[in-house]
Amino acid sequence: MGINIFLFVYYYLFYDLGPQFEYTRELLGSALPWARAPAAVLNFNCMLILLPVCRNLLSLLRGSFICCGRSMRKQLDKNLTFHKLVAYMIALMTAVHTVAHLLNADWYTNSFQGRYGPLASKLSMLGDSRELNTTYLNPIRSNSTTPTIFVFTTIAGLTGVVITLALILIITSSMEVIRRSYFEVFWYTHHLFIIFFAGLVFHGAGVIKTFCLVSVQTSAVCRRVSSGKSVLTDFNLLNPRLQTWMWVIGPMIIYLCERLLRFIRYMQPVSYRKIVIRPSKVLELQLVKPGFKMEVGQYVFLNCPAISQLEWHPFTMTSAPEEDFFSVHIRSVGDWTEKLIKMVENLPEGGQGPKMAVDGPFGTASEDVFDYEVSMLVGAGIGVTPFASILKSIWYKFKDSDPKLRTKRIYFYWLCRETYAFEWFADLLQVLEKDMEERGMRDFLTYKLYLTGWDQSHVNHAMVHFDKDTDIITGLKQKTHYGRPNWDREFEQVRQENPSSVVGTFLCGPQALAKDLEKKCVRYSDVDPRKTTFYFNKENF
């Protein structure tokens, strides 16, 4: 934000006070700096917009450098938030830049037609003597040229219209309701960024001219001209150089490398180890890819050419790094997932699934779970997938007596609307429950399951079987809770049971829950760093 403000103020003053634009300001007035200052800010933000979605670069920064500490990794995990903020700034500056240039087109026309006085009319006739008066301070050369015609007959105008339309489509299709319900619309319109950047590079082809003079006293010097102080022999008009490419070339090369790497991974073979249709229309795919290595909580992008060769969708892996395969759980939401599940359901007995391409793995906040002494894992619905990977990995670490395991305690919360959803990995919880009891570490894993979508029949059924040793829904010893967690009570309990620990709170769930948990982490963290401190982490895709 500081750099944005600096660029805007600097270039506003540069075009508002610069002597080389003295005559141009006579034609355009204050619309000149109001057009050029946002252009400088746009260059800077267009340089930044691609970097947060260069996931291989972020994974490299996140996991490869020792200097990337916990605070820096937390910022890298907010890459999509940063991407959106930069996009908002681009949208705002585009609006200001567009309005100012529309005023410029109108004022150029009025100046040429003599509506702003004799000085503006005379300046409109100034041409560049080096080019035999083919270039003029005022690009309007006919009384019949309207601002609309001017906009659609110049390189700057045409490219401006194209990139503005592309930007409008990109931003509107990125709204939450469209992205969630019509992901394909979001995916395809977002690729209009190619047209946006192509038009952006050529958009600066000069309409605004720099006025230079060659006088008897000084040669090829740009300076303010005051009547009687110089004997003018000729005028030079300098087109501004195309500068946008210098801002965006670096990020564009990095992004092209990302796409090249994705294509290479697309060509690598992927085989199926197992395909399972889970309750609640959840598809589990166990895949094998040569040389594939993962960490807990990471995610991959999947592409199914039989459905679309262009669409890539992110899925968190539910397998553990200790396993010789990687797995994903895919819930039926949207056209792509529905088509994939139908294709798998129609497979013949023992048939192989459709060809699948895999890009990744990529790092997330959940990678840091073992860096905390105490962890709170909160999953909502299918958002439990990264924690399935974590819990599996914990089981393997205990089984192998891994001395590097720093984690002393885990609190696991799973919120679901349907009873069938708990079957996704209730078996894993049963194995962990039994294993912790045998090792005398019953307190290591505290898990609570919450059924948020229920009716009176569920409650009546639970009351009838209340005295059973195991839960009627999951078969676990820990009984299912009805409703939503009382987070104040949960955080207070964790704080009391861990009076001098650093607690990592990890969420994979909706934004509303994220805001609530983030506030709780701040509220229940002690000012004294020697006491309990909560750090909030959220999965972002």
From TrEMBL:
UniProt membrane topology term: Multi-pass membrane protein
Biological process annotations from GO: defense response; superoxide anion generation
Membrane-crossing residue ranges in chain numbering: 40-61, 82-103, 149-173, 185-208
Subcellular location: Membrane
GO molecular function: metal ion binding; superoxide-generating NAD(P)H oxidase activity
Secretion signal span: none
Superkingdom field: Eukaryota
Reaction catalysed by this enzyme: NADPH + 2 O2 = 2 superoxide + NADP(+) + H(+)
Entry annotated with the keyword Heme: yes
Domain FAD-binding FR-type: 262-368
Keyword annotations from UniProtKB, A to Z: Heme, Iron, Membrane, Metal-binding, Oxidoreductase, Transmembrane, Transmembrane helix
Entry-linked Pfam families: FAD_binding_8, Ferric_reduct, NAD_binding_6
GO cellular component, one term: NADPH oxidase complex
Gene3D superfamilies membership: Nucleotide-binding domain of ferredoxin-NADP reductase (FNR) module, Translation factors
Protein name (database record): Cytochrome b-245 heavy chain-like
Organism: Sinocyclocheilus rhinocerous
Organism phylogeny: Eukaryota, Metazoa, Chordata, Craniata, Vertebrata
